Write the structure tokens for this entry.
Amino acid sequence: MKIIAEIGVNHDGKISKAKKLILLAKQSRADYVKFQFYKTENIVVKNSLVAQYQRKFFSNQFKMLKQYELNTKDLKNLLHYCKKIKIKPLITCFDLDSFNEVEKFVNLKLYKISSGDLDNLPLLYYIAKKNKNLILSTGMSNLNDIELALKTILFARKYKKSPPKFEKINKIKLNKNNLKYLKKMVTILHCVSEYPAKLKNLNLLYIKKLQEKYKLNIGLSDHSKSLLTGMIAFTLDAKFLEKHITISNEDEGPDHKASLNYNDFSKMIDNIKMTQIILGKPKKKISKVEIHNKLIARKSLVANGCVRQNEKFSLQNIAIKRPQTGKKPRLLWNLIGKKSKKMYKHDELIS
């Protein structure tokens, strides 16, 4: 499982804070650190309202996003820092101008699409047409939304034609061959767009549903406060886990409450690593400790009292006792009725 540490807007518009979060992600052993890159004017109208969980901090979505907007210089700075401390960057671009801007100075093979843009088919089409692989968050969506997104990416990558009409995309069949074609370029993240998400709403078994239906790499974008969700997702064979990271849950801002601080983020990864160790592999291998204990814990055939030479073995004169340094108990029935070739003392191993 690959771990994505989502910084999002938890840098609060401060590059120094963003770098600290990158370092914390690295120290917690995350595989990726993710940024949000957008031009506020391109993604929201000026009088747009905020979501309920954001109302404590802002009443206007435009002003909120503007405060957390990274410029190109900022993003270059952060990507350079990622390279310096050796952690992979991941970017969510919310508009085409921002994507094109990123492409001018860095060649990323993988981009993340937010749940809010899952049905933004023009954005998906354009990014996929540039031969980029995509991780799709699927909050607020149903299977029809997911399939339209997959069909759009398939159209852009496989057919590489000019932008199609919606009806043409919708006619594409997600058959076995097309899904196999998509497997190397698309990952779907089950997601509940609630901040923080209540445990009763997580419905992690939906991961199995997505795996069975599409045969693609499936993961989880988790907005809960639980440290257990990553472990559970791992047991469900999730390939990615995305989780918000913050310096402090008490910081002012819309996403800090739905994030994990460094200590909890690190514990979450510890739990996942431990789960991986505990689950092991789907085949039984006898360990060295077990081999030693096997000799002590298992049993052998021994004489039950004195057994004279030429005396016939029976259930009365054979016992099964530890350790297993002689004949195994499964050979008992082979001996019954046969004559002993020697005399055995009580508890002597039958050879």
Notes: The longest helix spans residues 262-279. The CA atoms of residues 154 and 182 lie 7 Å apart. Residues 288-335 form one domain. The first strand starts at residue 2 and ends at 8.
